[in-house]
Amino acid sequence: xxxxxxxxxxxDALAERYSLSASGLARRAxxxxxxxxxxxxxxxxxxxxxxSTESLAKIIEATGASLExxxxxxxxxxxxxxxxxxxxxxxxxxxxxxxxxxxDDAGYxxxxxxDLVELPARAAETSYxxxxxxxxxxxxxxxxxxxxxEPGAPTRKGDRVVLxxxxxxxxxxVLDRQTAKSVVLVSLNPAHPDRDISMSEVEWVAR
Length: 207
What we know:
Order of helices and strands: HHHHEHEEEEEEEE
Oligomer: single chain
Number of domains: 2
Helix content: 10-25%
Largest sheet: 5 strands, antiparallel
Protein backbone atom coordinates (compact mmCIF):
# COMPACT_ATOMS: atom_id res chain seq x y z
CA UNK A 1 0.00 0.00 0.00
CA UNK A 2 1.28 3.45 -0.94
CA UNK A 3 1.39 5.59 2.18
CA UNK A 4 3.19 8.70 3.38
CA UNK A 5 5.22 6.72 5.93
CA UNK A 6 6.20 4.01 3.43
CA UNK A 7 7.40 6.49 0.79
CA UNK A 8 9.64 8.29 3.29
CA UNK A 9 10.84 4.97 4.69
CA UNK A 10 11.76 3.90 1.16
CA UNK A 11 13.79 7.11 0.67
CA ASP A 12 15.67 6.40 3.90
CA ALA A 13 16.21 2.77 2.86
CA LEU A 14 17.47 3.80 -0.58
CA ALA A 15 19.97 6.19 0.99
CA GLU A 16 21.20 3.47 3.35
CA ARG A 17 21.58 0.91 0.57
CA TYR A 18 23.90 3.26 -1.30
CA SER A 19 25.89 4.27 1.80
CA LEU A 20 24.36 7.73 1.91
CA SER A 21 22.68 9.75 4.62
CA ALA A 22 19.34 11.36 3.80
CA SER A 23 21.09 14.70 3.33
CA GLY A 24 23.84 13.04 1.27
CA LEU A 25 21.21 11.51 -1.01
CA ALA A 26 19.60 14.92 -1.46
CA ARG A 27 22.95 16.51 -2.35
CA ARG A 28 23.81 13.69 -4.77
CA ALA A 29 20.49 14.34 -6.53
CA UNK A 30 21.15 18.09 -6.81
CA UNK A 31 18.53 18.96 -4.17
CA UNK A 32 18.82 21.09 -1.06
CA UNK A 33 20.66 19.05 1.60
CA UNK A 34 17.72 19.50 4.01
CA UNK A 35 15.08 18.31 1.52
CA UNK A 36 14.68 14.91 3.21
CA UNK A 37 15.11 15.99 6.83
CA UNK A 38 12.62 14.53 9.30
CA UNK A 39 11.32 18.05 9.97
CA UNK A 40 10.38 18.46 6.30
CA UNK A 41 8.07 15.45 6.28
CA UNK A 42 5.23 17.22 8.08
CA UNK A 43 3.88 20.73 7.53
CA UNK A 44 3.76 23.26 10.37
CA UNK A 45 0.19 22.24 11.16
CA UNK A 46 1.08 18.54 11.30
CA UNK A 47 -0.24 17.47 7.91
CA UNK A 48 1.81 14.92 5.93
CA UNK A 49 4.13 16.46 3.34
CA UNK A 50 4.89 14.16 0.40
CA UNK A 51 8.10 14.24 -1.67
CA SER A 52 7.55 15.41 -5.24
CA THR A 53 7.72 13.01 -8.16
CA GLU A 54 10.59 15.14 -9.50
CA SER A 55 12.55 14.57 -6.27
CA LEU A 56 11.93 10.84 -6.48
CA ALA A 57 13.05 10.73 -10.10
CA LYS A 58 16.24 12.62 -9.21
CA ILE A 59 17.24 10.31 -6.35
CA ILE A 60 16.62 7.22 -8.47
CA GLU A 61 18.82 8.66 -11.22
CA ALA A 62 21.49 9.88 -8.77
CA THR A 63 21.94 6.45 -7.18
CA GLY A 64 21.62 4.47 -10.40
CA ALA A 65 18.78 2.51 -8.80
CA SER A 66 15.85 1.18 -10.78
CA LEU A 67 12.21 2.09 -10.36
CA GLU A 68 11.61 -1.57 -9.47
CA UNK A 69 14.12 -1.34 -6.64
CA UNK A 70 12.47 1.77 -5.20
CA UNK A 71 9.00 0.25 -5.56
CA UNK A 72 10.09 -2.84 -3.61
CA UNK A 73 11.34 -0.57 -0.83
CA UNK A 74 8.04 1.35 -0.81
CA UNK A 75 6.13 -1.91 -0.51
CA UNK A 76 8.22 -2.76 2.53
CA UNK A 77 9.45 -6.17 1.42
CA UNK A 78 12.56 -7.64 3.01
CA UNK A 79 16.04 -6.83 1.80
CA UNK A 80 16.30 -10.19 0.05
CA UNK A 81 13.57 -9.07 -2.34
CA UNK A 82 15.56 -6.04 -3.45
CA UNK A 83 18.06 -6.42 -6.31
CA UNK A 84 21.71 -6.04 -5.23
CA UNK A 85 22.65 -2.37 -4.96
CA UNK A 86 24.66 -0.71 -7.70
CA UNK A 87 26.88 2.12 -6.53
CA UNK A 88 26.86 4.95 -9.07
CA UNK A 89 29.02 8.06 -8.80
CA UNK A 90 29.30 11.21 -10.95
CA UNK A 91 31.74 10.96 -13.89
CA UNK A 92 33.58 13.85 -15.51
CA UNK A 93 36.76 14.53 -17.44
CA UNK A 94 39.85 16.48 -16.44
CA UNK A 95 38.77 19.44 -18.61
CA UNK A 96 35.46 19.62 -16.73
CA UNK A 97 37.26 19.30 -13.41
CA UNK A 98 39.37 22.31 -14.30
CA UNK A 99 36.38 24.42 -15.29
CA UNK A 100 34.32 26.43 -12.85
CA UNK A 101 30.91 25.40 -11.54
CA UNK A 102 31.49 21.67 -11.15
CA UNK A 103 32.79 21.71 -7.56
CA ASP A 104 32.17 23.55 -4.34
CA ASP A 105 35.02 25.16 -2.40
CA ALA A 106 35.84 21.88 -0.61
CA GLY A 107 36.29 19.93 -3.86
CA TYR A 108 32.94 18.11 -3.72
CA UNK A 109 30.90 17.69 -6.93
CA UNK A 110 28.02 20.15 -7.07
CA UNK A 111 24.89 20.50 -9.19
CA UNK A 112 23.33 17.75 -11.28
CA UNK A 113 23.13 16.37 -14.81
CA UNK A 114 26.35 14.40 -14.46
CA ASP A 115 27.12 11.27 -16.38
CA LEU A 116 27.21 8.34 -13.94
CA VAL A 117 29.50 5.33 -13.68
CA GLU A 118 28.72 2.20 -11.67
CA LEU A 119 31.31 0.85 -9.24
CA PRO A 120 31.89 -2.79 -8.33
CA ALA A 121 32.21 -1.78 -4.66
CA ARG A 122 30.82 0.80 -2.27
CA ALA A 123 32.34 4.28 -2.09
CA ALA A 124 31.93 7.31 0.13
CA GLU A 125 28.90 9.47 -0.62
CA THR A 126 31.15 12.33 -1.76
CA SER A 127 33.20 10.19 -4.17
CA TYR A 128 33.21 10.82 -7.91
CA UNK A 129 34.89 9.41 -11.01
CA UNK A 130 37.44 11.26 -13.11
CA UNK A 131 38.28 10.07 -16.64
CA UNK A 132 41.94 10.30 -17.64
CA UNK A 133 42.63 12.34 -20.78
CA UNK A 134 45.96 12.21 -22.59
CA UNK A 135 49.19 10.37 -21.79
CA UNK A 136 50.66 12.53 -19.02
CA UNK A 137 50.00 9.78 -16.45
CA UNK A 138 51.51 6.85 -18.36
CA UNK A 139 52.50 4.14 -17.63
CA UNK A 140 50.21 3.89 -14.58
CA UNK A 141 47.07 5.43 -16.07
CA UNK A 142 46.15 5.41 -19.74
CA UNK A 143 43.86 7.66 -21.75
CA UNK A 144 40.27 6.70 -20.89
CA UNK A 145 41.05 5.07 -17.54
CA UNK A 146 38.73 6.07 -14.70
CA UNK A 147 39.98 7.23 -11.30
CA UNK A 148 37.75 7.21 -8.22
CA UNK A 149 38.36 10.38 -6.19
CA GLU A 150 37.42 10.60 -2.52
CA PRO A 151 37.43 14.21 -1.24
CA GLY A 152 37.89 14.56 2.50
CA ALA A 153 39.80 11.28 2.87
CA PRO A 154 43.09 11.67 4.78
CA THR A 155 46.18 11.80 2.58
CA ARG A 156 49.75 10.79 3.38
CA LYS A 157 53.10 10.40 1.66
CA GLY A 158 52.90 7.93 -1.23
CA ASP A 159 49.17 8.34 -1.87
CA ARG A 160 47.96 8.93 -5.40
CA VAL A 161 46.07 12.22 -5.36
CA VAL A 162 44.26 14.63 -7.66
CA LEU A 163 45.02 18.32 -7.18
CA UNK A 164 43.32 21.38 -8.64
CA UNK A 165 45.05 24.74 -8.66
CA UNK A 166 43.36 28.12 -8.37
CA UNK A 167 44.25 28.62 -12.05
CA UNK A 168 42.08 25.62 -13.01
CA UNK A 169 44.87 23.11 -13.69
CA UNK A 170 43.98 19.54 -12.62
CA UNK A 171 46.65 16.88 -12.17
CA UNK A 172 46.95 13.35 -10.80
CA UNK A 173 50.28 12.59 -9.14
CA VAL A 174 51.83 10.94 -6.09
CA LEU A 175 51.94 12.95 -2.87
CA ASP A 176 55.53 13.32 -1.68
CA ARG A 177 55.12 15.99 0.99
CA GLN A 178 52.48 18.45 2.20
CA THR A 179 53.18 21.31 4.61
CA ALA A 180 51.39 24.49 5.59
CA LYS A 181 53.28 26.26 2.80
CA SER A 182 53.35 23.86 -0.15
CA VAL A 183 52.48 20.50 -1.69
CA VAL A 184 55.21 18.46 -3.37
CA LEU A 185 53.98 15.99 -6.00
CA VAL A 186 55.87 13.27 -7.90
CA SER A 187 54.82 12.74 -11.52
CA LEU A 188 53.52 9.33 -12.56
CA ASN A 189 55.08 9.78 -15.99
CA PRO A 190 58.89 10.27 -15.77
CA ALA A 191 58.68 12.46 -18.88
CA HIS A 192 56.79 15.07 -16.85
CA PRO A 193 58.40 17.12 -14.06
CA ASP A 194 57.59 16.81 -10.37
CA ARG A 195 55.73 19.77 -8.91
CA ASP A 196 56.20 21.92 -5.81
CA ILE A 197 53.04 24.00 -5.51
CA SER A 198 52.44 26.77 -3.01
CA MET A 199 49.37 26.18 -0.81
CA SER A 200 48.13 29.62 -1.86
CA GLU A 201 47.76 28.18 -5.39
CA VAL A 202 45.96 24.98 -4.30
CA GLU A 203 42.17 24.99 -4.58
CA TRP A 204 41.82 21.39 -3.32
CA VAL A 205 43.63 18.08 -3.14
CA ALA A 206 41.91 14.69 -2.82
CA ARG A 207 42.96 11.03 -2.58
